[in-house]
Amino acid sequence: MKTKNKKTALVTGGSRGIGRAIVLRLAESGFNIRLAYKSNHDAAQKVKTEVEKIGAECEVICFDISDYQATKSALAAKVDADPPQVVVYNAGIARDNLFVWMTRDEWDSVLSTNLDGFYNVMHTVMFPMLREKQGRIVIISSISGQTGQAGQVNYSASKAGLIGAAKALAREVGKRNILVNVVAPGIIATDMTSKLPKDQILPLIPLNRFGNPGDVASVVDFLCKEENMYIHGQVIGVNGGMAG
Ligand code: NDP
How far is ligand 1, taken at its centre, from the CA of residue 93, in Å? Predict the structure, then answer.
């Protein structure tokens, strides 16, 4: 199938979990994919094969978003030559601990991946997107960034920071017809949440289940569609009714 005339979506953290679901959903919606990931080559290649089965192209790009130079080297030339119409900033990590026990490394690794990564990735893609005068950006935050979560002072700070950054960016680039929104998932069944005590958490979720990656992907997909003309600078909770 010829796919050269399709639009391109860049998805960070596309190799697993929520990012994988977003990649597949956007491929079904007609995008070619640039899938960025850190180190899990097998998982990335599997998603690439799944995307190609859908009939879209998938370029996998391996780099650490917390590393400014590595991000520029991996992305800058590609996005300059072929600017993405959609960017989903999804990659992220958690290193949970009560604040009194939290090590400097637990703080630094989460902030540098989740928040510095925003600068590294978004600053690299911004000029090429502005040139095109159109686009959709979706930032994956978390309910922890909205409410704060015990044991996640580092993670909550990074995810609240993303909300502020996305809202400010929305004010800067809206005039260029680039719509910027945030999706804030609750508890979604992925590798990141596989060790959580389900019996203690379910009573906190009015819908009485963990979300699926697809629950998040379908909202991201809508925000990226051309029919979304006016949702801009918003935080959309996907949390089964937990208070966001
Ligand atoms: P997973 O742990 O399942 O996947 C994380 C993805 O991010 C992987 O693709 C991983 O690549 C990539 N990644 C991690 N660190 C880096 C890095 N330094 N550089 C580049 N890529 C990196 O996470 P989820 O799918 O659960 O979460 C996705 C996003 O959603 C995260 O931002 C998370 O904070 C957020 N979120 C998740 C919730 C949940 O309940 N699961 C709830 C709320 C928000 P690789 O495969 O190579 O390791």
Answer: 5
pTM: 0.98
What is the domain count for the chain? 1
Q: Give residue-wise pLDDT tens across range 157-179.
A: 999 999 999 999 999 999 999 99
Q: What is the residue range of 234's domain?
A: 7-238
Averaged pLDDT, 203-227: 97
List residues with catalytic annotation.
Answer: 155
CA distance 118 to 169: 11
Q: Of 64, 26, 6, whose CA–CA distance to 217 is shortest?
A: 26
Which atom of ligand 1 lies at the shortest distance from residue 188's CA? Answer: 40
Residues with CB under 6 A from ligand 1: 12-13, 15-19, 37-40, 43, 64-66, 90-93, 113, 140, 142, 185, 187-188, 190-193
From 22, 46, 47, 93, mutation site for ligand 1 pocket: most ligand atoms within 8 A of C-beta: 93
Under the banding of pLDDT at 50, 70 and 90, the label for residue 244 is confident
- Residue 2, domain member (yes or no): no
Any bridge partners for residue 181, and if so which? 138
Residue 34 lies in a domain: yes
Domain-embedded: residue 107: yes
For residue 58, tell me if it sits in a domain: yes
Distance 192 CA to ligand 1 centre (A): 7
User: 73: domain CATH number?
Assistant: 3.40.50.720
Check pLDDT > 70 for residue 130: yes
Query: In the prediction, which pLDDT does 3 show?
Result: 64
CA 79 distance to own-chain centroid: 17
* Whole-number Å distance between alpha carbons of 59 and 38: 14
